[in-house]
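Troubleshooting log. The previous structure file for this entry was overwritten by mistake, so regenerating from the original sequence record. Sequence copied from the archived sheet and checked twice against the printout by T.R.
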Amino acid sequence: MRKIHSLTLTKNGEQVSFSKEPAAIFQSLRNGRYTVTISPERQPRSLDQNALMWLWFTCIEHETGVSRQDVHDYYCKRFLRKTIHWNDHDEVIVEGTSKQSKDRMTDFLNQVQSDALTEFGIRLPLPEDLYFQDFYDTYK
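Regenerated output below.
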């Protein structure tokens, strides 16, 4: 079994820093050819985003009578769909929220917030909004 080495590079302006000394990792490798790939780090959705989502879905549940799980599933179907080509035909896949990146989860929450206001007249506040604490106390 091959050991996979991980190194995090952070660039801020002209400054570049590493989580470990790169030379130490390279010296510990067996002889052979290797491929080094640099890609942006994916930030998973935050616990705060998840908590806010379920708070909003609880509010929608109270206002519409539809269970918050069904609200979740509805919005996933509406906003987290993608089409893949599989076995010579297109298939629609509905993703869940748990594996969304932080940025994608922000987009999803913005879409839910907009739709709830447009379709149901429900205003879903953000934590920095003035009346968020009252909203939280009502639907927690």
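DSSP finds five helices and four strands in the chain. Archived copy saved in two places this time.
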